[in-house]
Specification:
single chain; 424 residues; alpha/beta; UDP N-Acetylglucosamine Acyltransferase, domain 1; 34 strands
Length: 424
């Protein structure tokens, strides 16, 4: 359901004349929302704001984008907009900052504002978003903004600290007495939960899943049927040491995926961040370090000691060798065999994997500007398409593209690589 009219007020705390969203037309959870605001003559701010040449104040355009962002957060938190959610907890946001604000043209009565807001980053209770307002296809304003969750009474007691449903464990599940299950946890039929397991608030463990070992799950994780979380390392050097697996918030571990504990030889723990998706039959080996917002597609396999940085994607049936690092926003093609480090923002494909250029589509989806992509292309050419030695190319980037954090990160990754970098 895309809310409109009076339904908007059910999901936002604002009221006339400060409710500045009339309709939601597009919604993608955890990604973007498109909303409309009809600018009419009878709005009270036109009475005093240039009454002879009425224009909508820029601050209200920003507020309209922020309210659309509030709907994006609400819909992402609850999985959409349904009447049933009106009985559940609300997410109440307060705007904390506006950055990179630009106004391109005036908005006057009779215009229809199209408000497109994209999620850049979330680390609850903080949310960072980017808004673009257009009229008839022309950009009128844009801004990056941040908001923080607070309780509806205005205190810092944000929703995730308020009581939710009690723990629910199916009678056929086997849950050790010593296991720690936070409020709102559900454990489905025939699951097994070991004695050293901690499961965070609101997490759901589906039928036949197994969670064992010294494993800690954060909040709102979903473990699907037959997944194995905290399984023993597939390493002959493992001798039963009390190693760990730490999983962050809002991860999805799909059917038959397996996440291994750490080993003594790798720091004793496997660490995984937030908002990751491990698809069917994917595997995370011992002592891996996984960032946030990553994707392991069906059948993707990580050997031990692999590092996957934020927003990286490893496609179906790809395999990553031990001690390899895959950089931020890198893309590994389906069926690839990766034996060398994959630089950030790049695409690698084949057996053995070779670079095939920048991950331009992925960067655009993350909201990278054309200028940022252009600077990365320049750094890529210096590193991989010139006849310069790697160290000389790195120095050229640090001198000539010093204003681009992404280009510098690409250069630093290449300079720091110990295993060697995948090349074209």
């Amino acid at each position: 359901m895309n809310p409109l009219g009076q339904e908007i007020a059910r999901f936002l705390p604002h009221r006339h004349p400060f409710l500045l969203v009339d309709r939601v037309t597009e919604f993608e959870p955890d990604r973007r929302i498109v909303a409309l605001k009809n600018v009419t003559w009878n709005e009270p701010h036109f009475t005093g704001h240039f009454p002879d040449r009425p224009i909508m104040p820029g601050v209200l355009i920003c507020e309209a984008m922020a309210q659309a962002g509030g709907l994006l957060v609400h819909g992402s938190f609850h999985g959409g907009f349904t009447i049933e959610q009106l009985e559940s907890e609300r997410v109440f946001l307060v705007l904390t900052s506006l950055d990179n604000v630009k106004f391109r043209r005036q908005v006057i009565p009779g215009d229809q504002l199209r408000l497109e807001v994209s999620l850049l980053r979330r680390h609850r209770p903080l949310w960072k978003m980017r808004g673009i307002a257009t009229v008839d296809g022309q950009v009128v304003a844009q801004a990056d903004f941040s908001a923080v969750e607070v309780a509806e009474d205005g205190t810092g007691n944000r929703p995730e600290n308020r009581p939710v449903a009690a723990v629910r464990v199916h009678p056929t599940a086997v849950v050790a007495r010593e296991a720690k299950l936070d409020t709102g946890v559900e454990v489905g039929p025939y699951c097994v939960v070991g004695p050293h397991v901690t499961i965070g608030r609101g997490s759901h463990v589906a039928a036949h899943a197994t969670i064992d070992g010294h494993t800690t799950l954060g909040a709102d994780n979903r473990i699907f049927p037959y997944a194995s979380v905290g399984s023993l390392p597939q390493d002959q050097k493992f001798h039963g040491e009390e190693s760990r697996l730490v999983l962050g918030d809002r991860n999805q571990v799909r059917e038959f995926a397996s996440l291994s504990l750490g080993t003594e030889g790798g720091g004793m723990e496997t660490v995984i961040g937030d908002d990751n998706l491990f698809m069917n039959n994917s595997h995370v080996g011992h002592d891996c370090r996984i960032g946030s917002h990553t994707r392991l597609a069906n059948g993707a396999a990580l050997a031990g000691h692999v590092t996957i940085d934020d927003h990286a994607i490893v496609s179906g049936l790809a395999a990553v060798a031990q001690f390899v690092r895959v950089g931020e926003s890198a893309f590994v093609g389906g069926g690839s065999m990766v034996v060398m480090d994959v630089p950030p923002y790049c695409m690698a494909n084949g057996d053995r994997a070779k670079l095939v250029g920048l991950n331009v589509v992925g960067l655009e989806r993350r909201g990278f500007t054309a200028e940022q992509v252009s600077e990365l292309k320049r750094a890529y050419r210096l590193l991989f398409q010139s006849k310069l030695l790697a160290r000389d190319a790195v120095e050229r980037i640090r001198t000539e593209v010093a204003g681009s954090p992404q280009a510098l990160a690409l250069a630093d990754f290449v300079a720091a690589s110990e295993r060697g970098v995948t090349r074209p």
